[in-house]
Amino acid sequence: MALMTGDNYLASIEKLDHQVFIQGKKCLDVTDHPISRPPAMAIAETYFQAEQAETKSLFTAQSHLSGETINRFTHIQHSKEDLVKKILMLREMGRKTACCFQRCAGLDCLNTVYAMTYDMDQSFGTEYHGRFVDFLKHVQVNDLVTAACMTDTKGDRSLSPSKQKDKDQYLHMVEERQGGIVVRGAKLHITGAVNSHELIVVPTRALKEEDKDYAVAFAVPADTEGVTFIYGRQPSDTRRLEERRSDVGNLFYGGCEAMVVFDDVFVPQERIFMRGEYSMTGRLVELFAAHHRASYGGCKVGVGDVLIGAATAIAEAQGTRNASHVKDKLAEMIHLNETLHAGALASAGKGYATASGAYAVDPLLANVCKLNVTRFPFEISRLAQDIAGGLLVTMPSLDDQDNPVVGKYIHKYLVGKTDVDSDKRMRLLRLIENITLGTGAVSYLTESIHGAGSPQAQKIMIARLADLESAKSYAFKLCGI
Ligand code: SF4
Ligand code: FE
After folding, report:
1. pLDDT value, residue 1
2. What is the pLDDT of residue 94?
């Protein structure tokens, strides 16, 4: 089996016996809980798209290991075309779901660890790459979702991992046992963690020799003993608990993050992909960051498409579509959105082959793309809210339309242009609200700042990667120095 259907995927997560807690209660089935079902549906869409005639070619790829058709979310990119197709696929998914569909962090992590295990074997004579390839085969053959578990809790940010008062503030190896190791720590903001079959754990920062025990990378199934997921809250998530869910804005999908605790988890030898090679951690983090920063120029652009569409439709519904300032704002939104996409595509176009044969994006352009992502979705959101008007945050519930006393007032006074009914206008406003203020804003806005590294991390990389000496020499030549 190389391709699961969306329904098979949901059934596989339903069966998973992992420890998930939502709002203080244990959740037995994340695909059936009103708060966590939309995120599971968003991932299911990555399977569904791979089944559709029109999107199949974008959402599937040929495995370089087996030659079989696999879902592109499990594919190791082996050309610039592969890198470009990933970005295009993510934009398409953003358009279809208007949220974080969670599967790409795992994909970017697969590509990173594939390249890094190869490099480690070359440098240290280890046997990580073969182990990782076995794991990858398991992921591809069974079409699994992998969560990238990278960000540690970090405790006191001014101290390195081994200098922390509580040594567990970064995940580390606590014991060596027959046939494997035991690890302890917690990873934060893990996208799609509760909807994943496998967790890939990697270090969050460059480490020194004193932090050797923190230089661990491995994969464990989500239902491994000692692993606990604590689900992240999102603004207005409890609207999903309301009987008719009228005001959720995005009726079908959502993103999710979770805190993932590893409380003395045993990792068998064959699932360990780094153990003490601290000198490789900096490169690993940079490679993952580049892959994932470019990904944001796909997914966020797709969400931007939805927001631009909703802003256009609400302007039409309210009779402002032809106002010159509205046309100007829409053009500005498109300009910003396409600029994000351009950066990601350029990073793929200037991609390169790593020693393993897997391709990686140009790191400077990927960081430039992501730094733009930390800013432009906010401006696009501001413009969407400007076009939408204040009713975006003051209107009654959609349910009020059905009330025998007040319904008639809503239908009479919340219409837009004469042929637009209140329901259409209110639904569009709720969607804009979702993306710019509600559950969708978690991924479209705040994740755009901090996901795949906060803005300062991109500035540091941009400064490091830019060739200022060459730039100076061009200047010297032209002014006769
Ligand atoms: Fe994928 Fe974007 Fe979510 Fe990252 S933020 S997992 S790239 S959808
Ligand atoms: Fe992310």
Report:
1. 63
2. 98
Distance CA 39, CA 195 (A): 8
Task: Give the distance (Å) from ligand 1 centre to CA of residue 402.
Answer: 37
> In the numeric block, which tokens belong to residue 290?
């580049």
pLDDT, tens only, 415-462: 989 889 999 999 999 999 999 999 999 999 999 999 999 999 999 999
Distance set, CA 372 to CA 92, 361, 366, 378, 454 (Å)? 20, 17, 10, 10, 12
User: 222 CB less than 6 Å from ligand 1?
Assistant: no
Hey, what domains does the chain have and what are their CATH numbers?
6-276 (2.40.110.10), 283-478 (1.20.140.10)
Residue pair 32/46 in contact (Cβ under 8 Å)? The answer is no
Ligand nearest to the CA of 443: 1
**What stretches in the chain show pLDDT beneath 70?**
1
Question: What is the pLDDT, as a whole number, of residue 2?
Answer: 77
Q: pLDDT at position 419, please?
A: 85
Would you state the structure tokens that stand for residue 8, as one six-digit string?
């098979």
pTM of the predicted protein model: 0.97
Q: Is the CB–ligand 1 distance for residue 100 below 6 Å?
A: yes
Yes or no: say if 273 and 345 are a contact pair by the CB < 8 Å rule. Answer: no
Nearest to 69 by CA among 58, 85, 54: 58
Distances (CA, A) of 180 to 18, 222, 265: 22, 18, 10
Ligand 1, atom 8: closest residue by C-alpha: 100
Cβ atoms within 10 Å, residue 55: 16
What is the C-alpha to C-alpha distance for residues 273 and 275, in angstroms, rounded to an integer? 7
pLDDT per position as a tens digit, 232-271: 999 999 999 999 999 999 999 999 999 999 999 999 999 9
- Is ligand 1 within 6 A of the CB of residue 191? yes
Q: For residue 347, give the nearest of 285, 299, 290 by alpha carbon.
A: 290
Residue 77 CA, ligand 1 centroid: distance in Å:
17
Which among 308, 264, 459 has a CA at the least distance from the CA of 375? Answer: 459
Please state the separation of Cα 383 from the chain's center in Å. 24
Q: Which residues pair with 180 in a beta bridge?
A: 177, 268
Label each residue of 356-420 as H, E or C. Answer: CCCEECCHHHHHHHHHHHCCHHHHHHHHHHHHHCCHHHHCCCHHHHHCCCCHHHHHHHCCCCCCC
Q: How far, in Å, CA of 403 to CA of 231, rounded?
A: 35
What kind and span of H or E run contains 122?
A: helix 104-124
Residue that is written with structure tokens 């349910």 in the block? 399
Q: Whose CA is nearest to atom 2 of ligand 1?
A: 299
Alpha-carbon span 17 to 175, nearest angstrom: 26
Provide the β-strand partners of residue 175: 182
Q: For residue 102, which of 12, 193, 202, 235 has the smallest C-alpha distance?
A: 193
Give the pLDDT score at 12. Answer: 98
146 lines ligand 1 (CB under 6 A): no
Distance 255 CA to ligand 1 centre (A): 9
